[in-house]
């Protein structure tokens, strides 16, 4: 897809961070944008700040972990703007800790949002995109944690690896179509991801208190504060969509880390072949 003028984008997790920047970037290109999120007040603030910046903007409350809610959001977006051309499955949350200590509730929460949220978006919008036949593009937000495994981030890495796998599969399935697919894999970005617990449903808080070392929490907050500007991430996404790039990376320093991982995997073949 090259031109976003008068096209329509649907963005989840759009009230904050990367999603809000994606919404802003598509609006500035003349697209109509539907912002979807579960934070009512943040959504209202986001829309107020975006009005008049390009195309038309609207919002709806949608929990991506709820398949029916995402189907309903798709119908409402189509009713509001007509055909949808860009789908950004971006909503995500962070939960972690030593892998044997992560509670069942944490697994359920993070899988529901980070993995099933993407599945629900694809199921709700892809039949419509295929039916209208116009050029379209899907951007699934994973993370560099979908390419590299990091200690204490087991559930997050597991869900983000799944999003990478799903998007690579999707791109192969869509190869002959005019629908592109990209997976966004950033490292640290200046957002509220480290405050994800604000959105954890009460039913999934669990009886076992989350063990988060306060020193580690403050260290992560500092790393995030020094992270990339989400508007820069959105600009990279738009150029990635235009180039129909499958993997969209934002941090050049990740290349060496990925090489090390891939070389380590390939090295394991020496015992097979020699
Ligand atoms: N910030 C980073 O360093 C970083 C790095 C790599 C990947 N990511 C990914 O980027 C995406 C966006 O996160 P962010 O960094 O902008 O964080 P953020 O917390 O600023 O924004 C996430 C948004 O998702 C919304 N959300 C949470 N649960 C939801 C649900 N069930 N349904 C709908 N919306 C929901 C939140 O309300 C929030 O507005 C996530 O998928 C995250 O994993 C972030």
What does this structure look like?
47% of the residues lie in helices and 13% in strands. It is of the alpha/beta class. The protein has a single domain (8-273), classed as NAD(P)-binding Rossmann-like Domain (Rossmann fold, 3-Layer(aba) Sandwich). The chain has a 7-stranded parallel sheet with strand order 3-2-1-4-5-6-7, with helices on both faces. The chain starts with 7 loop residues before the first strand and ends with a helix. It binds nicotinamide-adenine-dinucleotide. Nicotinamide-adenine-dinucleotide binds at residues 12-13, 15-19, 37-39, 42, 62-65, 90-93, 113, 141, 143, 186, 188-189, 191-193, 196, 199, 224, 227.
Kindly summarize this structure in a few lines.
This protein is an alpha/beta fold. It contains nine helices and seven strands; from the N terminus they run E-H-E-H-E-H-E-H-E-H-E-H-H-E-H-H.
Overall CATH class:
Alpha Beta
| CATH H level, superfamily name | NAD(P)-binding Rossmann-like Domain
- What is the beta-strand fraction? 5-15%
Radius of gyration of CA atoms, rounded to a whole number: 19 Å
Largest sheet strand order: 3-2-1-4-5-6-7
Number of strands: 7
End-to-end distance: 46 Å
For the sheet with most strands, the description reads: 7 strands, parallel
Category from helices, strands and their pairing:
alpha/beta
Summed over residues and divided by their number, the pLDDT gives a mean of: 95
Q: Percentage of helical residues?
A: 40-55%
Count of discrete domains: 1
The ordered H/E elements are: EHEHEHEHEHEHHEHH
Q: Overall 3D geometry?
A: globular
SS field, number of helical segments: 9
Question: So, CATH architecture?
Answer: 3-Layer(aba) Sandwich
Low-confidence blocks of residues: none
CATH topology type? Rossmann fold
């Amino acid at each position: 897809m090259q031109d976003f003028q008068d096209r329509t984008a649907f963005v989840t997790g759009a009230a904050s961070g990367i999603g809000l920047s994606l919404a802003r970037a598509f609006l500035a290109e003349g697209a109509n944008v539907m912002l979807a999120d579960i934070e009512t007040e943040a959504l209202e603030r986001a829309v107020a700040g975006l009005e008049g910046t390009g195309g038309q903007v609207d919002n709806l409350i949608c929990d991506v972990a709820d398949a029916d809610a995402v189907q309903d959001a798709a119908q409402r977006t189509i009713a509001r703007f007509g055909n949808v051309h860009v789908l950004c499955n971006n909503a995500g949350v962070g939960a972690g800790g030593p892998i044997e200590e992560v509670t069942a509730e944490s697994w359920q929460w993070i899988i529901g949002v980070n993995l099933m949220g993407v599945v629900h978006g694809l199921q709700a919008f892809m039949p419509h995109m295929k039916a209208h036949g116009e050029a379209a593009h899907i951007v699934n937000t994973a993370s560099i944690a979908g390419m590299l495994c990091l200690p204490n981030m087991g559930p997050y890495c597991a869900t983000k690896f799944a999003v990478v796998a799903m998007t690579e599969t999707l791109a192969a399935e869509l190869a002959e179509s005019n629908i592109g697919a990209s997976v966004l894999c950033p490292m640290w970005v200046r957002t509220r991801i480290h405050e994800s617990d604000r959105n954890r449903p009460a039913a999934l808080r669990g009886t076992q208190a989350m063990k988060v070392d306060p020193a580690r929490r403050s260290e992560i907050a500092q790393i995030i504060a020094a992270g990339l500007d989400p508007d820069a991430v959105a600009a990279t996404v738009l150029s990635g969509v235009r180039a129909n790039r499958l993997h969209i990376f934002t941090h050049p320093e990740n290349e060496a880390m990925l090489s090390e991982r891939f070389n380590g995997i390939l090295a394991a073949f020496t015992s097979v072949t020699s």
